[in-house]
Amino acid sequence: MAKTSDQYFLYDGIPFPCIAHNEESLDFARNMFQVCDDDVYSITYPKSGTTWMQELLTLIYSNGDQTLSRSVPNWERVPWIEQVSAQMYVPKLTSPRLITSHLPLQLFPKSFFTSKAKVIYTMRNPKDVCVSLYHYCQLVLFLENPQDFDVFLSSFLEGDVLLGSWFDHVQSWLGTKDQVNILFQTYEELLQDLRGSVVRICNFLGKELDEAAIDSVVENATFKTMKDNKMTNYSLVPSDFMDHEKGSFLRKGISGDWKNQFTEAQSERFDQIYQEKMKEMKGLESMFT
Ligand code: A3P
Fold first, then answer.
1. Locate the Sulfotransferase domain: which residues (predicted)?
2. Domains (ranges, CATH) in the chain?
């Protein structure tokens, strides 16, 4: 990746896409942003289930009602704090604020660490993240278009992709488990048991929903429903930013798609690096199946 190209810039060593971020927006998020005790943060490394969690949180706090999720784009109702557009969207939020972030721990707002705010950190099998990100970079016109998966895989393993290293991101947030109010959620659990996951998320948030409301959250957050919802499927993004002819943001929505993309040698290379980098996190990989 040409990290200092007109597509990306480095902030504290992490590549950020210029289109949605600048130094001021990242400085503001880290140093000035005031976290409130009743804020709820959905944090992810890109392509790990960000949009899905935005939809779930919107629906949970709407008690299953779909009016908001059908009328306001996801980036406006659960905005990113680090993006330039935060200045526009965050002040409009009402309490409790639902906020998204892709920031690694070290760049997250300092005020968070003395607050009681809640965080849901969603993780996904990194091989599937890598494949999803590969396709996403082809779709989005302001990101470098990777022609060759093998080259992209090397960049991913080196952390030379947007938002840097998956390994560092996940480890930084997993390391907070005894210090902050955090729930770890996997994409795979959402796929396997969406209802059970919604109940667990509600318990963590202290949100009491009746059975009908839970059913409605689940029905409105399936892959099919979200793919048909123009407030969630990114079809509202102008075609000079996203090439809608090339594919969909909500692409496949499955786990294990990496098996269709990786060669055996690539998979072995990935596993070896995973073992080296994640040796402190034994057993984590069992959560991604
Ligand atoms: P794929 O590209 O593998 O299909 P993010 O929102 O973090 O950018 O992640 C996008 C990925 O989450 C895409 O993965 C997308 O299809 C998937 N996704 C979003 N909503 C989903 C849902 N309701 N069910 C399953 N997968 C979903």
1. 37-281
2. 8-287 (3.40.50.300)
